[in-house]
Design goal:
This protein has 3 helices and 2 strands. By secondary structure, it is mainly alpha-helical. It has a domain of 51 residues. The chain has a two-stranded antiparallel sheet with strand order 1-2. Helix 1 runs antiparallel to helix 3. The chain is elongated. It starts with a helix and ends with a helix.
Length: 115
């Protein structure tokens, strides 16, 4: 009887193990290099890359032709696109792994309890 209770917890545990292992490998091997660097800006003793889309002229033109909504949409797209590259991808994989594992665990627990 004890084997039947732990078996539904085995699959979510395997999902977590594989997902977090993959996230660790991605984090250790990924770099955050950006290919569209127009220059660098120094602040606080550090150099930060600047893309052409970070310029004031670009942002002004974006707002001029599309309004504030266009600027906000562009910022959202840049943020969302950044989730799938470099070290951010490792955190995205870990988050999605956690969601899938918890969802699977909740689905198996509700099925065991019954309606």
């Amino acid at each position: 009887m004890r084997g039947l209770r732990t078996r539904p917890h085995l699959i979510p545990a395997l999902i977590l193990l594989i997902g977090f292992g993959t996230a660790i490998v991605i984090y250790l091997t990924a770099s955050n290099d950006s290919r569209d660097i127009a220059g660098y800006e120094e602040a606080g003793g550090y150099l930060y890359p600047i893309s052409p889309e970070d310029s004031k002229a670009y942002m002004r033109n974006l707002e001029l032709f599309g309004g504030k909504t266009n600027v906000l949409a562009r910022e959202f797209i840049r943020w969302f696109d950044g989730l799938w590259h470099g070290k951010s991808l490792a955190f995205t994989v870990a988050f999605i792994t956690t969601l899938i594992s918890v969802g699977f665990l909740l689905a198996t627990d509700s099925r065991r309890r019954g309606p």
